[in-house]
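Agenda item 2: L-MYO-inositol-1-phosphate complex prediction
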Amino acid sequence: MTDPADQDALKAELLAVALEAARRAGELLRDGRPDDLGVAATKSSAVDVVTEMDIASEKLITAFLADRRPADGVLGEEGASFEGSSGVQWVIDPIDGTVNYLYGRPDWAVSIAARLTAGDGETLVGVVHAPVRGETFRAVLGQGAFLDDKPVRVRPAPPFAQALIGTGFGYVAERRARQAAVVRELLPRVRDIRRGGSAAIDLCDVAAGRLDAYYERGLNPWDFAAGDLVAREAGALTGGRPGEALSTELTVAGPPGLFEPLQAFLDEHGAWHD
Ligand code: LIP
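Presented output:
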């Protein structure tokens, strides 16, 4: 994919497909949520849950993608995984914020990203659709980040002691204890902490200036792929430990001037390990 016109045409097509897939899944999830929704399965612990709607959402999205982009690869949180031949891979979180969804809380989203399989796996397109909030974040590489049709930009870096920091916690008790120890050190040094329950939404809230910064250990690519691009296209820096890309080890996002001291603080306090 070398010709700029070809690149732009591909990005436009991928964005349109991602938006429609997210819209259809969001409609199913918002309007079809059973009143007696329960837990269909658990993963890393008894509180790491999957509902029938996570599975239904991923099935809807993967079927839509197979119809529109049959040669693309797919990686989904609930098991969708197949190689493609097009050089594009979709990364899907059918419900990011599953526990919020299970409890009928509003902060959950459908997160869909499209990335290249060659090179360093650049993400070209990211969509985070939060139906109960009535919000859709989107970003195309090099073309900015939007909340619905409005451009979004990160909030300028405040002094560290005035920063509103988002974070999240894992599903295994030992990791949560370690994460609590890091929060214990951070909380008295910043304005406050927010724990929303959806990494995709948290990253988009950094993009929109609703959080000054965000960090979390233990995320999977489907949690952060789309929100990372939205945050970066809104002017955030993202990464893991100093000098490293964001990963399951550690995800950090924030404006220049706050990203760096937060990243250094987290590294010093071992937020990157259990
Ligand atoms: C969630 C993340 C959240 C994290 C939760 C969970 P899921 O993803 O978005 O940031 O704190 O523990 O991992 O499991 O709802 O797709």
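Discussion summary: Residues 160-268 form a domain with the D-Maltodextrin-Binding Protein; domain 2 fold (CATH 3.40.190.80).
Owner for follow-up: CH.
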